[in-house]
Amino acid sequence: MKRRNVLRAIAIGAPLVGAGALGAGIAAADTANFKVMVTEQVANKVFVFDKNKAFTDANAYKTWSPGTGGWSNLSDCRIRDTAQFGAIGLAAASGGRVGVWNITDEKHQELNDVLWSATPGGNPHALERIPNVGAFVAASSDGYLTVYGPTKVSDPSTLAKVQTVSLPGAHGVVWDPNNNLLWACGNKVVQAYTVSGTYRNVRLKAHSKKVALSGLGHDLQADFSNSSLLQVSDSYGVYSVNKTTLAKTTLHTTTRIKAYVKMAGGEHFYVRGDNAGSRDWGSPTVVFSQSTDRTRTGAEFYKARYYTTAYN
């Protein structure tokens, strides 16, 4: 079996009931024909595509093009729901910036659609929103998490840095609504954090829950087939982590998986760094386990996400 096809043989868990989301055109439940959100670093755009259509400009459902400079080499994207703006996009860029933008106002968004941005430094790789308190947490691969707290939960323009937490190799963050924990992955570890306080007093504290990895953690996401699990990739493979027992199950040992998503209903998709092209950490192809792989000529995809505001 070819290495790029190893993931096709992975068994998928039981479906998740009612994986909800909000906003026009955003999935309200898992379907066979879902949308995929990707960071493409050559054009330096976030694209949203129907996974059953070719990843061409004509087929783009949504795009966001923030320009270069601090927004160069987009390294993360996801969407979350807010009371004031509805669905918003979250992004991190290795050029130095993290921020959120209004994804609902038009089909093709640009820098002028940004609602808030910041420069946490240290090669930002991920950004997550903590609901209810309106805080955001960025992961920078140089070794730390940065917490931003608002003075008004509904207004991201009021966000300011309130805390920096050491985490060597920080690459991924995801909110766990079932346990009210923030999970982050770094160098050889997945670490949980409690969240206390509100507004500018919001703070993270390392929880006793943590799981050892074999190498540098790359991607950390919810498991949309089972809300009790997390999915994490490191330099040597992809793993399932039970959020209660902390049991880690190796799903496969394919290297350099930069993004991995496990859906309810049996589908999974991923991006694997191919050691080729202008950015050897990326790939022009998003691989699907039950659908046609999607290759965009000349592209360098880094992250791929399920286009939903649901946390799990």
UniProtKB/TrEMBL annotation:
Domain of life: Bacteria
Pfam hit, one: DUF6528
Signal peptide segment: 1-29
Protein name, per record: WD40 repeat domain-containing protein
Keywords: Signal
